[in-house]
Amino acid sequence: MLDYSQTGSLTNLEPAQVRLAEELPNDPVRICAAVQRLVIQPGDASTLGVPEHRLAEKNLRPVNKLIAALTALNPAPLHRPREPEERIVGTCRHFVTLACALLRLRGIAARARCGFGMCFLEGRGADHWITEYWRADERRWVRVDTEHLDHGYVPRPEDLAEGEFLTGGEAWAQYRKGLIDPQMFGVPGTDHAWGPAEISGNAVRDLAALCKYEMLPWDEWGRMTAAYEGTTGSDYDRLIERSGRRLLCGRSVGTDQSVRPRGSDGTRPSAQLTPSLAVGLRGFLAAAVPGRAATPDQSSERSGVTRRENQTPRACFTWARLGFVITTSAPPLEGTT
Q1: What is the enclosing helix (H) or strand (E) of 84?
Q2: Model-level pTM greater than 0.90?
């Protein structure tokens, strides 16, 4: 059972860091707004003259490491906005994962979603992450564009409308139905990182995030590498389609049959897997087996950065057969890994 109101291995905070978060607001959107003043995109950091060595901060996965780096620059509590040069360098994934950690710290069910923003480039789906939190009174997941709350891309970034963001699984389903051109989905700033493999890659990262393993945007494991190389076949496509169809992508209890609220008030939704979903997920999240792990110097032209900047992410997912309930572990995830 996955309880999204509880922190995971990548969203745990150290005791001292919990104290730094005590004065944050309780409102979910205001928490996301506070995070917006704690993180800066690598491109913006470079423009401001942030030292080049600090750009490696974008490779940090665990939130406790992010906060440690942040407070090394400025030890102020987390509700205090930082000047841009004192913010942690990170991508949309870092905005979202930090927000999820702080929401969960407040006991608010939250999850990161990996997919595509549909409002940044006309006619294109841009690689992006957003935050979801559970709104009990409406019995639905609310989608928040944590990075762009005040940037004016959409009318209400604090409650994204249908179609303004597609998860990887949602985009894959539309692609398979012939509703979208896959070549219009990918990584802005690149010429080559567009197409079906970008959609399937984000579908897998989204699934990992739903399992409370919020990986980096350039992490890959298992058959993902083969998909980027174009060597997977129709069986892989069907696996993603089958798993994505049952994925936790619904936004209300009525449309998301994998959400089972804990307690009569429905305030703490958790994930419970059906047998058919568990079978699909086992293959979908298959880890890189010994001997298949890539070396740290292998690089990716997909996003113009090294996919495994420091170490291959060994994302090892295990399964509890009894009740087909998912458990996950991903050692090692220390430091910049």
Answers
A1: none
A2: no
